[in-house]
Write a structure and sequence with these properties.
The complex is a heterodimer.
Chain A (H helix, E strand, L loop, with lengths): L8 H18 L5 H17 L6 H25 L13 E8 L4 E2 L3 E12 L12 E2 L3 E6 L3 H4 L6 E7 L1 E2 L11 H6 L5 E5 L4 E5 L5 H20 L3 H12 L7 H9 L10 H16 L6 H21 L4 H19 L5 H15 L7 H21 L7 H18 L2 H8 L1 E3 L2 H28 L4 H24 L4 E3 L5 H20 L5 H23 L2 E5 L7 E6 L2 E6 L5 H14 L4 E4 L4 E3 L3 E4 L2 E4 L3 E5 L11 E8 L4 H10 E8 L5 H10 L5 E3 H4 L2 E4 L1
Parallel strand pairs in A: 5-8, 14-15, 19-20, 20-21, 21-22
Antiparallel strand pairs in A: 1-3, 1-6, 2-3, 3-4, 3-5, 6-9, 7-8, 10-11, 12-13, 12-23, 13-14, 16-17, 17-18, 18-19
Helix pairs in contact in A: 1-3, 1-12, 2-3, 6-7, 7-17, 9-10, 9-11, 9-16, 10-11, 11-12, 12-13, 13-14, 14-16, 16-17, 18-19, 21-22
Chain B lengths: L4 H5 L3 H28 L9 H6 L9 H6 L30 H13 L44 H6 L4 H12 L18 H7 L26 E2 L5 H4 L7 H14 L16 H7 L3 E2 L7 E2 L5 H5 L6 H14 L16 H7 L3 E2 L2
Parallel strand pairs in B: 1-2, 3-4
The chains are: A alpha+beta, B mainly alpha.
Chain lengths: ~700, ~350
């Protein structure tokens, strides 16, 4: 009923615009000038066509026009480099002055993004041969060595670095997280590593003045929270929920929320904004007035409050989307009588995508729009199943329906990104949403009281603590329930699209009541089942070896049916191996993992003798510093994997060994590779650093 | 209400006007976006007073430097616990006089190590590792100003070196080198200190109180080709042969003995099979060898068993066979008759043929 074409112009436009952006991402190398010219051509052809007889052709051209606008916008983002971008200036090494954009995240080193302001290249490779600094722009990923000095860095600090920048290396392992792509859609394409003596702190407070102000406000609110909340975990939850400050969250707390399907409360999103807006509208609604001017003032105040909240909590895309949407909604409600909410949703999406088309590829944007569309569509249809009489039960039942409605369009993308699905989402929805509202309310009261009447805050603080601890306890107990999260599901891109097509067809079936739609839906279901059976059969018979692209040593897996024999050197961090291997193993539906860390292993399919692996089909030798060279007059192996070893050991080994295929591990240092290539007299050498993980069927 | 698919493709006049307006705004926006950099990018680094900043990378109070650090020159590059490492949290008024000497020293060392990266003199920067070349850092900006004066690296004290503003890395390694007995005989010897960089050496070089070079006694310069003499391997004496590089008294005697036994070399590469003459030495002396054909041949008709046997190429068995054949078939009329002997292979015959005659 809601999809009358006249009612949803923005939706129709938005759809083609979006498709244009997606299409452009498949052809990122098409230059922006070409796209602009293409759009103009289509525009002029469309303008030229006239007449009632040709109205459909004109319509098609207009559709194509909107499509090409989306295409153009994305291709500008991909291919346009302003003259002052450091890439245009061919900067590779030298001095950089820039401002840190976000609070550094602590891992092995402090990682953050830097907005470049000035550069001064090394004399050999820069346009400007002088020692001066030139204005520049661009974003860099920086890794700063951990020490006391760098611990104190925060967003807005301007620093001076001396470094070499390199493009971000693409991910070498199949099916593992594509960091390069992720960063590319945040306009970051280069990285640099900075040791302690390579950087200097210059000054602070260099974000946009509005952001500076909101940062300070957030800082002071954080301190207020800190004052009143005793437990660390609870403080982390409050900080994330109310202020969008997520650096205090620890792994276990985050996991608890992810497993129970309530992690969306930890990220400030439309939910919080909706609660806030509801609060404010209700408050302002208490002031009843007939005067239009006062109405406008009220609405403006609400809008200002919404945007302040969005900025204070860190300007995440989800919040900005919600803020845009709520602003348009309020304005629309004031100016027009009937508005179609899908239209407003689509309009806000178009606006955001015009500003930054890369938002389309960010998970938070996708999640928030899908969730909202899902709620808007399914909530009314599901709530008529049962309307309880009791008000309290009705309240909680509505929350459960809300959670269910939200999940319908969101679960495919959840499974695609996270490979698991929280089964108790309804339960946690009933708990998480009310608690989030309560905590938000109490925190706002806390902040207000702190400035008016600090002493009374003891009471408010106590209430806050109480609600937080109950919240955390309930979430943790849900996590303990069996079958909390359905793990280990892996679907690929095509399967996800297929599921969405099926879902959209179901929605169409609901709306249009056409029986004929059942056939495509059923066929999609059949295609799905058939393809997964084929995949299962393929995986039961698989025999494959993969040498992973990891740092620190050699890690390889041998897949035999659904068993996986893994050989990984102890020098490799378990987390890196997990990152490299887990998705791939999931994809191959591995049931058992057998670790070959002991020196000798023997079973029916494979035997390991100090790095010499022999199977029925092929034999593999792993050479690194610790494996002894096999003693034989000559040894012929199918695959030779070489790690970081001394050259004389390699020379000695190559006297005995003949290999069909050689793989150089990632852990081999650059400067040794020349020497290795001289010693290894072989054509078939696969360098993992250049080509990524090595996969071979046995 | 029946909405067909066509309705989605059909745009009313109002909608069309709206779309055209949006398109116009879109292109205007793009035009502004493209021209924005040239309008705004007028800020200069002068606003930041960057020039002052880069000066603060050096210790900013030169005259008191030796006072504050001079009493205790650290012997090793251990952690500088006295270093003033401040936290910069919310502090706007610090000066970044931060660079303590250890870090300078490390930077210096890294600068000198960069030159050693190319393995075996092959510059791997020519190979294109996909997107990543190994960084070539240069820290030229970061060395403090040297104030050199005349000095002898063998005797100068640490304090004096400090007055020159030389970095601790160089001071310490120099000291260690000297303590271990190292001596500087020429100016260039100062380069041997591994933390010494070319640029610093260039600055210090005029002030080093040492000779440019020392007369070398050990090596004689190689003669130019025109004055080189060739050695006739068939007529040279042992002393003459010792003039070749790599041939000493023992080897020369062995060559002579081998030659006498053979009866003379008929080709130069026979020398290779002298016992103890390695291939590398042979390659070195090869250009200087000459051959005159003075071979003493063995008369296979008159030679007795011992004479045949003592020839290096004729084995005990072969000698016996030749003697037997001669006894059975009578005198040889031609050396080629030996080819009739069954156990004498063609190669062996070729080998011994130059040394045999029938007269």
């Amino acid at each position: 009923m809601y999809f009358f074409p006249r009612e949803i112009p923005a939706v129709r436009l938005g759809l083609w615009f979006l498709l244009g952006i997606i299409c452009s991402s498949f052809f990122p190398s098409i230059s922006y000038s070409l796209s602009i010219i293409g759009s103009l051509v289509i525009l002029f052809i469309g303008l030229a066509i006239d007449g009632f007889k040709y109205r459909f052709t004109k319509g098609i051209f207009i559709t194509l026009l909107v499509f090409s606008l989306g295409f153009t916008r994305n291709s500008i983002e991909e291919t346009y480099l302003p003259d002052h971008h450091f890439e245009s200036l061919s900067f590779t090494s030298g001095d950089i002055i820039g401002v840190i954009h976000e609070d550094p995240i602590s891992k092995n080193s402090y990682r953050s993004t830097l907005a470049v302001e000035y550069i001064s290249g090394d004399k050999e490779n820069t346009l400007s041969a002088t020692d001066k600094f030139n204005s520049a722009k661009g974003n860099l990923l920086v890794y700063i060595e951990k020490e006391d000095r760098s611990k104190a860095l925060k967003a807005g600090d301007r620093i001076l670095l001396h470094t070499t920048i390199r493009p971000i290396r693409p991910n070498g392992n199949p099916y593992s997280f594509d960091f390069k792509n992720y960063l590319h859609h945040r306009s970051i394409n280069h990285q640099c590593f900075i040791k302690s003596h390579d950087w200097e702190y210059l000054s602070a407070g260099h974000l946009h003045p509005v952001l500076n102000l909101t940062r300070d406000i957030r800082q002071s609110f954080l301190e207020i929270l800190q004052k009143h909340i005793s437990s660390d975990a609870e403080e982390a939850i409050a900080a994330a929920l109310v202020l969008g400050y997520r650096n205090l969250l620890t792994e276990d707390v985050y996991d608890a929320y992810t497993d129970t399907g309530s992690v969306h409360v930890l990220a400030v999103s439309g939910l919080h904004l909706g609660i806030l807006t509801g609060m404010l509208l209700w408050l302002f609604g208490l002031i009843k007035t007939e005067s239009r001017v006062v109405e406008i003032i009220k609405m403006s105040l609400v809008i200002i409050a919404i945007w302040m909240f969005a900025l204070i909590t860190g300007s995440a895309p989800a919040v900005l989307r919600a803020a845009t949407m709520f602003t348009l909604f309020i304005i629309g409600k004031k100016l027009f009588k009937d508005i179609n909410t899908y239209n407003i949703l689509a309009a806000s999406a178009i606006l955001l995508l015009l500003v930054d088309p890369f938002l389309l590829f960010q998970a938070s944007f996708q999640f928030s729009y899908l969730a909202l569309t899902s709620i808007l569509y399914f909530q009314p249809k599901l709530s008529i199943w049962w309307i309880p009489d009791n008000r309290i039960i009705r309240f909680f039942w509505n929350l459960a329906i809300l959670a269910l409605a939200a999940q319908i369009l969101v679960f495919p993308i959840t499974i695609y990104y996270f490979h698991k699905f929280p089964l108790y989402f309804a339960l946690s929805g009933i708990i998480a949403v009310p608690f989030a509202g309560i905590i938000l309310w109490i925190s706002v009261m806390l902040f207000i009281m702190e400035f008016i009447f600090p002493l009374a805050n003891v009471v408010v603080g106590y209430l806050l603590n109480l609600s937080l601890s109950w919240f955390l306890k309930m979430i943790l107990s849900i996590q303990q329930l069996p079958f909390c999260s359905l793990d280990g599901i892996l679907i690929n891109y095509q399967q996800m699209i297929l599921i969405y097509v099926g879902l959209i067809l179901m929605m169409a079936w609901f709306s249009l009541q056409l029986k004929r739609i059942i056939f495509p839906i059923l066929s999609i279901a059949i295609v799905f089942m058939v393809s997964s059976s084929f995949t299962l059969i393929k995986n039961i018979n698989q025999k494959e070896i993969i040498v992973y692209d990891v740092n620190g040593g050699i890690a390889t897996d041998i897949f035999y049916g659904r068993n996986c024999y893994t050989y990984a050197e102890k020098s490799i961090k378990p987390s890196s191996l997990e990152f490299a291997a887990s998705n791939y193993r999931l994809y191959h539906q591995i049931k058992n993992t057998i670790s070959l860390t002991d020196e000798i292993y023997n079973d029916a399919t494979l035997s390991n003798h100090y790095g010499y692996l022999s199977t029925k089909y092929k034999n593999i030798l792993i050479l690194n510093q610790n494996t002894p060279i096999p003693h034989a007059d000559s040894l012929r192996v199918d695959l030779l994997i070489i790690g970081d070893i001394k050259e004389d050991k390699l020379t000695k080994a190559m006297e005995w060994i003949k290999a069909d295929q050689i793989v150089l591990g990632r852990s081999v240092p650059f400067w040794k590779k020349e020497a290795y290539l001289d010693i290894l007299n072989n054509d078939k050498i696969h360098d993992i650093y250049l080509k990524g993980a090595y996969i071979e069927k046995l | 209400m029946n909405t067909s698919l066509n309705d989605y493709l059909n745009y009313t006049k109002a909608e069309r006007k709206g779309i055209y307006l949006l398109t116009f705004l879109f292109f205007t926006g793009i035009a502004i976006y493209f021209s924005l950099p040239s309008l705004i990018m007028d800020r200069t680094a002068a606003d930041l007073k960057i020039d002052q900043v880069s000066h603060t990378f050096k210790p900013h109070d030169n005259k008191s430097r030796s006072e504050e650090k001079g009493k205790l020159i650290p012997d090793t590059l251990s952690d500088n616990k006295n270093g003033k490492e401040k936290r910069y949290y919310n502090s706007n008024d610090h000066k970044s006089g931060f660079r303590d000497h250890k870090k300078l020293a490390v930077a210096e060392r890294k600068k000198s190590n960069v030159k050693n990266y190319s393995y075996k003199n092959k510059s791997y920067q020519n190979k294109s590792f996909q997107g990543n070349t190994y960084p070539k850092k240069s820290y030229k900006k970061w060395s403090p100003e040297l104030k050199p004066f005349d000095f002898n690296p063998n005797t100068i004290s640490k304090d004096e070196l400090l007055k020159m503003n030389v970095s601790y890395a160089i001071i310490n390694t120099l000291d260690k080198y000297r303590n271990k007995g190292g001596q500087f005989k020429t100016k260039k010897d100062l380069k041997k200190i591994y933390t010494m960089t070319d640029s610093i050496y260039q600055i210090l070089q005029p002030f080093i109180q040492l000779p440019e070079s020392v007369a070398k006694s050990t090596f004689t310069k190689p003669k130019s080709i025109s004055t080189i003499s060739f050695y006739d391997i068939n007529t040279a004496t042992a002393e003459e042969l010792q003039g070749l590089k790599g041939i000493g008294p023992v080897l020369s005697k062995r060559i002579i003995k081998f030659r006498d036994k053979l009866g003379g070399f008929h080709s130069i590469d026979q020398i290779k099979s002298t016992y103890g003459l390695e291939d590398s030495v042979y390659q070195n002396i090869l250009p200087f060898l000459q051959l005159s054909k003075t071979i003493t041949e063995i008369n296979i008709n008159k030679a007795d068993f011992n004479e045949l046997n003592s020839h290096p190429y004729i084995s005990f068995q072969l000698a016996k066979v030749i003697i037997n054949y001669r006894d059975q078939h009578g005198q040889f009329t031609d050396v080629n008759e030996l080819q009739n002997i069954k156990i004498l292979s063609a190669e062996k015959f070729k080998e011994i043929e130059p040394y045999l005659s029938v007269n």
